[in-house]
């Protein structure tokens, strides 16, 4: 999607409807010219999520997946810290939507999932910051701690 859009910034600027049909421009313009049906999906059609959906739900999943791809590209492009938390949560939401369409289990609301993702991202950022501060404090202290951990593991192995 990024290579077809040109860059991550360009992809982030596209609305979800454009992301959905990205790669099917030829079919879109042909449909508009002949007043036929417009394509439901472009490059997104090759996703495993759409492949797992039932035939009647492929258009719905395509629209939902394009929405989540659009959100993910905006988060990746405009956030200061690179993190995988949001992508993982968005993927979980797509999985929940597939289960909802197949079985009827109610998926979580987007606002709840994003609040969880923000909390988790903050935790990871704090953890990363602490590691960096510990590394800056002194490598000698860090080496002593690592040696102590290694010795403890050896003792456990000897007991077995």
From TrEMBL:
Family: Belongs to the NOP5/NOP56 family.
Protein name: Nucleolar protein 56
Database matches in PANTHER family: NUCLEOLAR PROTEIN 5 NUCLEOLAR PROTEIN NOP5 NOP58, NUCLEOLAR PROTEIN 56
UniProt GO MF annotations: snoRNA binding
Presence of the UniProt keyword Nucleus in the record: yes
Cellular localization per UniProt: Nucleus, Nucleolus
Residues annotated as domain Nop: 1-103
GO cellular component terms, semicolon-separated: box C/D methylation guide snoRNP complex; small-subunit processome
Keywords, in A-Z order: Nucleus, Ribosome biogenesis
GO BP annotations, alphabetical order: ribosome biogenesis
